[in-house]
Amino acid sequence: MNSSQPSNPLARLLSRLAPIHAHEAPAVVAAFLLFFCFWAGYFAVRPVRETVGTLLGRDRVADLWVVTWIASLAIVPLYGWIVARFRRTTFLPLTYGFVGGVLALVGVALQGETISIGVGQFFYVFISVLNLFLISMFWSFLLELFNSEQTKRLFGVIAAGGTAGALVGPFISDMLVERIGNSGILFLGAGLFFAAIVAQRVLLRIWHESAPSSASAQQARSDRPIGGNPFAGFTLVLRSPYLLGIALFIVMISTVNTFLYFEQLRLVELTFPDTTERTRIFARLDWIVQTLTILSQVFLTGRIAERFGVTALLTIVPFAMVFGFLALAATGTFAVLAVVFVLRRACEYAFIRPGREMLYSPLDKETKYKAKNVNDVPVYRGADALAAQVNSGLSAAGVGAAGVALLGAAVAAAWGLIGWWLGRRFEKTTAAQAQPQAEQVNG
Predict the structure, then answer these.
(1) Other CB atoms closer than 10 Å to residue 105's CB: what's the count?
(2) What tens digit of pLDDT does each residue of 89-125 get?
(3) Cβ(116)–Cβ(199) below 8 Å
(4) What domains are there in the chain, each with its CATH number?
(5) Which of 173-177, 272-276, 338-342 has the lowest mean pLDDT?
(6) Distance (Å, rounded) from C-alpha 411 to C-alpha 199?
(7) Is the separation of the CB atoms in 102 and 196 below 8 Å?
(8) Of 220, 223, 266, 286, whose Cβ has the fewest other Cβ atoms within 10 Å?
(9) Is 221 exposed, middle or buried (0-12, 13-18, 19+ CB in 10 A)?
(10) Rounded to an integer, what distance in angstroms lies between the CA atom of residue 251 and that of residue 414?
(11) How many CA atoms lie within 13 A of 245 on its CB side?
């Protein structure tokens, strides 16, 4: 994909919304729709998971958080084994088909008056692991399709497809659940995952057709199984300071998110005694977050990355959270919490997530699939569990909300410094890779 200028009305319109070149528009639209379909499917069925959680009881759900982390560890070598032996054009659509099939089967099980404990526990863990795994797999796939320069411009608007899905999925469930029931929602989610297969096939066709004929053989070779050890993701992370830096960056994300999440629960409980009012507040926060996210992804992310680099995407949110936590420590009010919480979530989806994915673009294919999956799933889920235990331990030790907020500010500062280091490493690596290509062209 080269960088020609837009030459038709639709391409010019897209270029006004985001820095998309004319020849890139079909692939961007297909990627947008792919992200929309499977993410809408996930968010449509996630409320059913919460309902199943109420049926299982809080004690079982607490135990399932540990099971979720263990499952996230187990899925990494399984995924590595699949990547090593199957073409991406084969296993990626099969993955969406498998998820759709599982959702349909659970939907059948939910058609009765009761649900078995075993099915409920499987479904709860399945959905909890599914979200991070699907996201990791999606971005790994896109990192093969777009080069480092394109990721800066295009990943923001593509990420907006997922945000749109996160808006539409739960809205559809809210509107239809009384008519079709929980089982119907699961069938709907399955249908969206099957639609994702179609979107992915279209994207693959566009990818192959857009390449010059001289590159077709190279593309065919790139679609071969990666090979290697299915546990290679763990060793790749442990041996690379860069990948360890990304892992630590993810741990910091999780810690900041967990501290804010528990503070949100505390302040909402204190501020709004009525449970219905609490639900309305949570829904309003989600609506505002998703709206700000999609606007930022379409109009800001690509332009910020192109003009200021990935370093800016990785450091804007952490350093802003330093001031956010300090404001919480000074005031401790719900109004301040709401502003900090909304801005953190919206800006993380709009800037941190695309920036984090861009970090993998200069790396080899095995790293993009295997090591990335390690960081995105077990590292993230393990950090979630650890941060929750730290928060509980601080509360048990008598540390108040202000103290936790001050600790959060320190973590956010460390998060920003790690992001700055990663961004600098990324910029140097991509510059070094681009220089031989430029010399070859000029020569």
Answers:
(1) 14
(2) 677 788 899 999 999 999 898 876 567 888 888 988 8
(3) no
(4) 26-228 (1.20.1250.20), 231-432 (1.20.1250.20)
(5) 272-276
(6) 40
(7) no
(8) 220
(9) exposed
(10) 11
(11) 18
